[in-house]
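Field: COMPLEX_INPUT
Field: COMPONENT_COUNT = two
Field: RESIDUE_TOTAL = 412
Field: MODE = joint
Values follow.
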Amino acid sequence: MDDITVEKLYQARKRDLELTLVAGGEEGLHRKVSVPLIHRPGLALSGHYERFPAERIQVLGETEVAYLEKLDKAKQTEIADRILSSGIPMLIVAKGLTPPAPFLESAQGHRVALFLSRLGTADVSARLKAYLDHIFAPSTNLHGTLVDVYGVGLMYTGKSGIGKSEVALDLVERGHRLVADDVVKVTRVAPDVLMGHSSELLGHHMEIRGVGIIDIEELFGIRAIRLQKRIEVEVRLTLWSETVDYERLGIEEQTTTILGVRIPILYVPISPGKNITVISEVIAMNHMLKVYGENSALELSKKLSQRLSRQSMTQDYLESDYE
Amino acid sequence: MITRTAKIVNRFGLHARPSAMLVSTATKFSSEVFFTKDDLRVNGKSIMGVMMLAAEKGTELLVEVNGPDEEEAVVAIVRVIETGFGEKS
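Field: COMPLEX_OUTPUT
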């Protein structure tokens, strides 16, 4: 994600963060926020400027303001100038406090937007951080179809025309919910969480070859759609090929990486007589079983191993029994 | 892989009918086709993807073709775009 302007942040969040712009004006709003991080400049106020993270949004709370009020005006001016000329994107003073006058003058002079917020400092920081994380989250567009099957986000991929939309349509018909067809916007909302949603323009439209473009929400109603869903498993649809070895046991999980997040991937061959919809439901349920700590393939394999070792013990006993 | 840029010249840009034409042209070939507008890159064989570009007149579309018949494909695709899909410019 690219940088955002202070103005964009202000417009998007002024209500949530209860922001009032008090200095820095027009030009201050054109500054750019380039990192999703917040800093409380306690040490800088007391004179330690080394490694001062000037690229971050600065937030002053009760402690900082109380400290500044103890200082004389000359000192306040010196600190204000130092901080506001360092290139910070913006400054927020929280808890309904008023910063010492030199801060307002300096913000105006250096054209840095200075905001007041009535919210507590921790609250401002938490809400601002959540917004910044959302804005700066890495994102991409993937060619595929995302469906919520029993609460598991299945991302169908595969060549154009292989039947991703048709599988999704069949799933919707059986009561599952479409998130996005054809183009899925993917955002990494947390270090290991991928969220998928559809583009604003495409919504829940879908192309079915031979029919044309249909609107799933209009056709099946609100129950058939979902606005966003975590992507949990990728299902790669492929044409059946004699030469490819398909997964037969499912003991070892294959994974794929999207935006640096590893998720399981299954290669499912399409061939006449295969009901991908039912297979999809099984994939979703099997994924849930694994999440809850049950691995059917592994269980069966263990049982088999136990049986074999028991048999061999009995055999060893009988063979070495010379009574 | 072959990469070309093609300019949308018809008056109403890449609306539904031209999108369908573009996708059917791309689908005739076995090569993979991608279109990019700004930072949005979509599969050229997907009608929804192409419509999502919402490319207006004057847009420089980046065309990427990769596969065994890429040379014929890129010529056909660029031609259909640059002739304005048979519409008024």
